[in-house]
Amino acid sequence: MIAKPTLLSNQISSRPIMVLDSGSKSSLIDSQESSTTARDLISCFMSFSLAMSDVLVYNLWATDVGRYEAAGYDILRSIFTEYCRLFPRELNENQLEVSDLKKTALLLVLHDHDDGSSLNLMRETLVSDLEKLWNDVPKSVGSGYATNPVKLIEVFEISVTSLPHPKHRKAEFDLKIDALRDRFVESDLLKSDYSKAVPLEAFPTYVDLVWQDVCGARGSVGQNGTTSAGVFGVSRKDLVASYVCDNAYNSQYKSVMRTFNSWNSGVDRGRVIGRFGHSAER
Fold first, then answer.
1. 19 near 209, Cβ under 8 Å?
2. pLDDT digits (tens, 9 = 90+) for 180-190
3. N or C: which end of the chain has fewer CB within 10 A?
4. Using CA atoms in the order 202, 204, 207, 213, what is the torsion angle rounded to 10 degrees?
């Protein structure tokens, strides 16, 4: 369902950057799948992307700005819906200080911007449309709804850029691509404010846990697209905390067991463990 992740090496960045390409909406679903199954698959991937990504990059044609279907606003609405479902505790100002909210960067890239139209005007149109989508999404907290739901700009850092046609204005396109790449390499987009704070050694486990829980919200998504009921029970903070605690416990447990096995082996050979009480307390 998703393309193979790409890892940008240290040759262009001081730290590795993983890029996950979801492809287009049509590439995520099979034409023979039911609309319900297709929506579930897309929602699963939206949830997965939100829980995984520091920056979400959304591509659309410059000429489609303001057009709901053509611009894929349904995908953006799904992103907001999944955010509200995944992180309900972050939706009520009464439960969490706005300054404590962990933002996700949302970068909108407008392709084939060649008609001389103002990027600022298109940015204003997009932000206005996104705010309407956000306001229309139900924001439940527990068994009710958020009494003072946070604003879109408090949970998503929205930026808009554009690219000219790659064939008709290739030189300018290449310069724009280089500038966009630099925004990632120079950490303009990869700020600590957006980081999911997942330790590198925890990443494989985190990915697995996120996917299991994301699919569990609608049930496990099988190879044939079937689903069964399930419940999403943890936030990204819970997942990270759970991993860190489990990792710390397992590390200490392994250390203790190595020492214990060494003692046990020595006793079996008739050796006396010197200063056992002192060593055991440590």
1. no
2. 888 877 767 77
3. C
4. -80
Query: What's the pLDDT tens digit per position in 162-179?
Result: 999 988 888 999 999 988
Find where tokens 């053509």 sit.
Answer: 70
Q: Give every strand in the sheet of 55-61, ordered side by side.
A: 55-61, 104-111, 156-162
Q: Is 139 exposed, middle or buried (0-12, 13-18, 19+ CB in 10 A)?
A: buried
Distance in angstroms (rounded) separating the CA atoms of residues 36 and 38: 5
Residues with Cβ < 8 Å from 150, sequence gap 6 or more?
90, 91, 92, 93, 98, 101
Please provide the size of the chain in residues.
282
CA distance linking residue 110 with residue 124, whole number of Å = 13
d(CA 204, CA 180): 28
**Helix, strand, or coil (residue 90):** helix
* CA dihedral angle for residue 1, residue 68, residue 78, residue 80, rounded to 10 degrees: 140
Cα–Cα distance between 67 and 209 in angstroms, integer? 36
Strands 6-8 and 104-111: unpaired
